[in-house]
Amino acid sequence: xxxxxxxxxxxxxxxxxxxxxxxxxxxxxxxxxxxxxxxxxxxxxxxxxxxxxxxxxxxxxxxxxxxxxxxxxxxxxxxxxxxxxxxxxxxxxxxxxxxxxxxxxxxxxxxxxxxxxxxxxxxxxxxxxxxxxxxxxxxxxxxxxxxxxxxxxxxxxxxxxxxxxxxxxxxxxxxxxxxxxxxxxxxxxxxxxxxxxxxxxxxxxxxxxxxxxxxxxxxxxxxxxxxxxxxxxxxxxxxxxxxxxxxxxxxxxxxxxxxxxxxxxxxxxxxxxxxxxxxxxxxxxxxxxxxxxxxxxxxxxxxxxxxxxxxxxxxxxxxxx
Length: 321
Description:
Strand content: under 5%
Structural class: mainly alpha
Number of helices: 12
Shape: globular
Mean pLDDT: 82
């Protein structure tokens, strides 16, 4: 397992280098000046703007700019945001706790709903309840996250006034108090439900189908022939094998939840890295954009590695050498 993990981690290095070249090239191909946020919009002095380009190194050859950027990046210097006029790492450090809190809440909702509905549908296939769960799953797969978010805000925020429609906490509260954390939980529930519920459909169907398939295998028939209790058969023999597929999805959730949060955070005006990423695209804040893209790429590679490792842990038949 250790050798496999080290081999995969070393294999990430050339992949990340290639990704950095693509990310930097796409940023340079986008229209507009990467440092436009540092220039007063009222300034039209072409000479001043040209001096800024020269001083910041944007007139240097592309290769020279890339080497300078990637060298600083590897040293932990991600540059300065052209919109917020502060180091990129400070901006991300400020936003990322909100995204982690939202993603963890959405992941909790996803797995709870998936286990409850998947186990019920798997144990009672082709019943009315199974068909209702299947209909909800297909509805969840069909509805885009931004549509679900808009309807959720309209119903639960504007009509019922149960949950707030934007923000992550009431700014009037003192950080660290009980009311502060209750406010954070209240603000995260609605976007977490939207993000988590829409991700439940595929997990539920996978778990249901695995339970049905495992319940027909020979080792289950043998357990029933020996007089084993039905509850023990489902919990020990069937569910234990069926849960393998769901557990291995955890690695991919690192990326899928962040990607889903880009839209969800923007609609709910939830101050996380998803909203920050979309705003950086709109405002051409290239230092932030490139840093977040590299971070998402690393999460994708790390998520794949984590999924493979988890698969080897939960399934003793798999050996990673």
